[in-house]
Predict the structure.
Amino acid sequence: MASTPAASNRSIIIRLNIASEELLKLYRGSAREVVATSLDGQKIRFPAEALKPYVTHNGVQGQFTLLVDANNKLIDLRRY
């Protein structure tokens, strides 16, 4: 049975287009956070580590949903 997100959790939609050269900073350890703007204009910061499953030779591209808790802590990141 799948769990239902708590009422205090919220989803934020972002679009990313990060070149592979920029992502090298993630692997070298100099990039710890990603800063993006949500579709509704909010500035969003989240751990760069969360992008690792989505990295390709071309970098990271696509539209993502971030699920955050009431304290704005990242719970989940999914591409769709």
